Every structure is written in C-alpha cells, then in structure tokens.
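Section 5: illustrative case.
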C-alpha cells in the first residue's frame, strides 16, 4: 500500500485553523461589528507578529487566546494539540476569575495581579488584545469605554515585560480614547445648556 504524504503545516497555521473552527462552531461573532469572532484573533496575531520577539509559539497562542474562555474546549485539548508552551500561554491569557470572586473591580484586580507575573510573550499577546479591543469599544460603546479604558490603564501599569512598542501603542490608544470621551462629554454638556 502506498503511503500518503503528510502535509506539514506550521503550528501558526494550525492554530489559526483551530481558532476559526472553534469560534465558528459556537457561532461567535464580534459584539459591535458582527464580524466572525476569529477576525479578532487574527488581528491580535497580526499585531503580535510585528514584534521583534515574535515566535511561532507566541503567534499560535495569539490565535488561540480566547478559545478556552469562549468555547467548550479545555486547556487539556490545547496542550495536546499544540504542546505545553502554547498551552501555558493560552492558559495565562484566559480570564481566571468568576462572578463569585467579587464585584468587577475585585475581579479585575485579581486578573491584574495574575497578568503582572505573566511571561513577556504572554504580556505581548495581551497588549495586542488590548489594542484590538480598545479600537472597537471606543468606537461603538462610549459608555462602557469609560470603565474599560480606566481598567486597561491600571492593567498597563503592571504589564512591564511585553513588547515596548505595543505597550506604547496600547497606552496611547487608551489615553486618547479617554480624552476623546471627555471632549465629547464636554461638547454634549455645552449643547444641552
């Protein structure tokens, strides 16, 4: 019997296909744009790929960063399919708190502490995630953006190991978003007088 040739795809391509399938299987779409959710994962991986420190493991984890949080796939499947390093990155990027851990402020504080100890590659992926989310939240949900941006500025204070360019960009977006919201609020206040 003739042996079938194995197709050798990269771990990044495999992670991309896995993320597309996982998020599509649950019909997940972006909250504000209604795009397929995997487009967000692709944007995060694309941002992470601009870093000098980008590795295949880091980019694969960027594609997979929301799979555990948003689907029924568990960490053991990620580790089995992609190995311990990528599994570790994805686990670190997965929000660990639950409503029973306290109110939103308490849960975000717990997450900040956890992410402060994360390795540089994980923090870099998280910075790319913040950039992607900030863009859409500021554009489509200014009321929530006020809460979100303040939380992200606090998170940025402890994310000191990630890529410095993505860090600067994430901080710039958050600060500009808050300034824009304040400016719009001031304008609205003047027109109501």
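Designed sequence:
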């Amino acid at each position: 019997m003739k042996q079938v040739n194995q197709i050798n795809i990269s771990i990044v391509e495999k992670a991309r296909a896995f993320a597309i399938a996982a998020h599509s299987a649950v019909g997940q779409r972006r909250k504000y744009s209604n795009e397929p959710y995997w487009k967000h994962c692709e944007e995060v991986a694309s941002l992470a790929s601009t870093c000098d420190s980008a590795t295949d493991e880091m980019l694969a984890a960027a594609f997979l960063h929301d799979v555990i949080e948003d689907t029924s796939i568990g960490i053991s499947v990620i580790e089995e399919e992609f190995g311990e390093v990528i599994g570790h990155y994805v686990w670190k990027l997965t929000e660990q708190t639950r409503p029973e851990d306290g109110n939103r402020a308490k849960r975000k504080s717990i997450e900040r502490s956890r992410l402060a100890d994360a390795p540089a590659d994980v923090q870099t992926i998280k910075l790319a995630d913040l950039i992607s989310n900030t863009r859409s939240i500021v554009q489509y949900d200014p009321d929530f953006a006020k809460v979100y941006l303040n939380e992200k500025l606090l998170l940025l204070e402890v994310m000191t190991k990630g890529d410095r360019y993505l860090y600067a960009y994430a901080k710039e977006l958050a600060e500009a978003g808050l300034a824009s919201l304040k400016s719009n609020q001031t304008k609205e206040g003047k027109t109501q007088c």
